[in-house]
Amino acid sequence: MKRTIRDLVDLEGKNILLRADFNVPIDKVGRILDTTRIIAEIPTIKYLVEKGAKVIICSHLGRPKGYDIRLSLWPISLILMKYFPGKVQFSHKTVGDEVKARIESMSKGSILLLENTRFHEGEEKNDTKFAKELASLADIYVNDAFGVCHRKHASIYGVARFLPNAIGFLVETELNVISQALQNSRKPFVAIFGGFKVKDKIKVLKNMLSKADSILIGGAMAYPFLVATWKSVGISPASSESITQAQEILLEAEKLQKRIILPIDHIAIRANDRRQRAFVTNTLEENMIGCDIGPKTVELFGNEIRKAGQVIWNGPLGKYEEPKFREGTFKIAEILANSPCYSIVGGGDSVSAVNKSGKAKMINHLSTGGGATMHLLEGGSLPAIDVIQEGLE
Ligand code: ADP
Ligand code: 3PG
Ligand code: MG
After folding, report:
1. What CATH number is associated with residue 31?
2. Which of 56, 128, 200, 234 gives a 20 to 30 Å CA spacing to 111?
3. Angstrom distance (rounded) from CA 199 to CA 210
């Protein structure tokens, strides 16, 4: 068992660097669409504040290439202020002397939210210098960013080598729930993959073949698989690399006698239609872009879900941010909510979509992790957890 914040003593006046996953869904102008990941972090922050620590929080948001004001963490500090009135400050810098001076002047039990770690080139490269700069801000490092624990980035992985460390309450809960789901795995085990992080998640999908009885694939994840089965996808995204991987996965599934179920109809638009009118189609013709699964696919997927013992779902099945492309995701959320299976939905966007569908209360576990949760469920380990010190038994 990893060391948790409960094992830390004498926190009063100590500088704690808390890594959170505030990678929340946002719209084009930077408005926050779902606060689940922020709310989930409150118990850990509250505990550290009550112990009198100076809580220095860092997180990434989105996938910026350098500084991008739309991906600033400033709006998140406004939400934190509602929970901790008078205690929260925001720093436009992530590291450096200015930040150190701010920390120096902070009172015990207050909070400083740092700017997006991904504005720094060193973050995703797991650069030692950047990790050390982050570490130099604090006495102790706490990892409570469950959703990003599958990444080997400086602020979640590299930094842990330079400070005494522990996990927070959110990571602890997520690890417990997911390990229980793995131990008591009920059959048939159905995995649903969607979303748009095809490059990342296709590997996880491959490994999931040995665990799941069937895999349902929607969202942008489906197009490489459709191409691999000689279906036309119009101009929906499908890179040659992902098509090759999809072919390998389909062959492997056949060998293992596992079922991969793909969309049989779509909600699409025509690239040359300026009004972007959505329509249902069985085939994605040359100039069409798939944006959601169609009603026949909902039924096809629904039949699998109704028979399942356990369902794990990551990735919306369409561009749910737009009302005309959310029906597929919402209907599947409804079917899942009304099914007798044990259900886990994970991922920033997936949880946001299920919240929007109004069915969230009937899902057994809403996980803050997308890639991280799927990675654990396919039997992998999380590098950012592995680097944390063991606790006393
Ligand atoms: P999560 O945050 O739950 O892990 P992802 O970040 O992988 O999920 O995927 C969410 C994104 O996938 C959403 O922004 C959604 O618009 C996009 N998406 C879903 N289906 C499609 C599609 N058919 N084409 C393009 N993007 C899609
Ligand atoms: C997520 O939303 O899955 C995590 O915050 C990780 O984000 P990333 O896929 O951009 O690394
Ligand atoms: Mg996402």
Report:
1. 3.40.50.1260
2. 128
3. 20
Give the pLDDT confidence of 334-343 residue by residue, as tens digits: 999 999 999 9
Residue bearing the CA closest to ligand 2, atom 6: 148
Phi and psi at 342, nearest 5°, equal -80, 125
Structure letter (DSSP) for residue 149:
T
Whether the model pTM is above 0.85:
yes
Asked whether residue 77 falls in the same domain as residue 203, the answer is: no
Q: Count of H helices and E strands in the chain?
A: 15, 15
Residue 31 domain-assigned? yes
Residue 392 has pLDDT above 80, yes or no: no
Ligand 2 atom closest to Cα of residue 371: 3
Which helix (H) or strand (E) segment holds residue 371: the answer is helix 371-377
**Percentage of residues of the chain with pLDDT beyond 70:** 100
**Residue 385 is assigned to a structural domain of this protein:** no
Radius of gyration over every alpha carbon of the chain, rounded to an integer in angstroms: 22
Of the pLDDT bands very low, low, confident and very high (cuts 50, 70, 90), residue 183 is confident
pLDDT of 393 > 70? The answer is no
Question: Is the confidence at residue 362, as pLDDT, over 70?
Answer: yes
By residue range, what is the domain housing residue 325?
A: 185-377
Tell me: pLDDT of 192 over 90.
Answer: yes
pLDDT of residue 162: 98
For 195-233, letters b (16+ CB in 10 Å) and e give: bebbebbbbbbbbbbebbbbbbbbbbbbbbbbbbeebeb
| Cα-to-centroid distance, 369 and ligand 3 (Å) | 10
Q: Is the CB of 355 under 6 A from ligand 1?
A: no
- Strand, coil or helix: what is 100? helix
Question: Using a 6 Å cutoff on CB, does residue 348 contact ligand 1?
Answer: yes
Say how far apart CA 315 and CA 219 lie, in whole Å: 7
Looking at residue 2, what DSSP letter applies? B
